[in-house]
Amino acid sequence: MKPVDLTLKGLEPVPTPWNSDMLKGMMISSELIQKRVGELADEIDRSMPDDKPVVVLSLLSGAFLFTADLVRHWRFSIELDFMGVSSYGKNVASGELSWTHPMQIDLKEKHVLVIDDILDTGQTLRKVTDKLHLSQPASLRTCVLLRKERQQPSEHSVNADFVGFFIPDQFVVGYGLDFALQFRQLPFIGVLDAHAPHTAND
Ligand code: IMP
Ligand code: MG
Q1: Which of 176, 174, 178 is nearest to 189 (CA)?
Q2: Closest Cα partner for 4 from 20, 26, 23, 28?
Q3: What digits encode the pLDDT tens for the residues 100-149?
Q4: Domain coverage including residue 158
Q5: Among residues 51, 116, 120, 202, which one is catalytic?
Q6: How many distinct structural domains can be found in the chain?
Q7: Model-level pTM greater than 0.85?
Q8: Is residue 13 domain-resident?
Q9: CATH of the domain at 63
Q10: Interatomic CA distance for residues 75 and 38, integer angstroms
Q11: Is residue 132 domain-resident?
Q12: Cα 52 to ligand 1 centre (Å)
């Protein structure tokens, strides 16, 4: 099934009690997220080979809610681990990643599914998959909830195998995604208001 294309969809009002002058509107409701997560879970389930162990590797912190909802649909057995990676750390030069939490699992000869919240330039996922390939998994596939529309895919980017939604190029928060560590707990995806006093130049 194709990703749900929201690139031309307008915003809805932010539901109470989450209204905030830092949010411009709601892009994806909680109901729509849950429906699509169920579809993605089915899609992945149907395509997952059962000849070798399956490892689900979730990228902290943004993918924590998405991972939690996705894996609860599955009845096949998985090894679940988390890997911390940050592209916005204080001491991280642009384009570089800092590894904030190492994974514990040996990936060799296992089917690996990497889960991330959002694919923007694709650099994060490219660097993560380049690193994981060194561990010689039997297969390596990627799943993201959101894929930002881009005119020019960069040469360093990578496509995800499973995508929940295509979205316009706006800064989104909620359902795991943060702005300065805030808004991760929202059950929906909202758009940050770039003109709000606390977001400017922050
Ligand atoms: P990429 O390397 O440009 O693909 O960036 C991916 C990472 O940047 C994601 O895993 C997020 O952590 C972060 N990111 C990119 N766009 C957004 C956004 O709109 N809101 C919050 N985080 C974002
Ligand atoms: Mg992330």
Answers
A1: 174
A2: 28
A3: 887 788 999 999 999 999 999 888 899 999 999 999 999 999 999 999 98
A4: 29-167
A5: 120
A6: 1
A7: yes
A8: no
A9: 3.40.50.2020
A10: 13
A11: yes
A12: 31
Residues of the chain below pLDDT 50:
90-92, 201-202
Q: What is the DSSP letter of 190?
A: E
108 in a domain, yes or no? yes
CA distance 11 to 130: 36
What residue's CA is closest to ligand 1, atom 16? Answer: 120
- Return the SS3 of 33: helix
Closest CA to 160 of 141, 140, 132, 137: 141
CA distance 200 to 194: 6
Cα-to-centroid distance, 45 and ligand 2 (Å): 24
Give domain status of residue 114, yes or no: yes
Active site residue 120: yes
What torsion, rounded to 10 degrees, do the Cα atoms 85, 67, 80, 82 define? 10
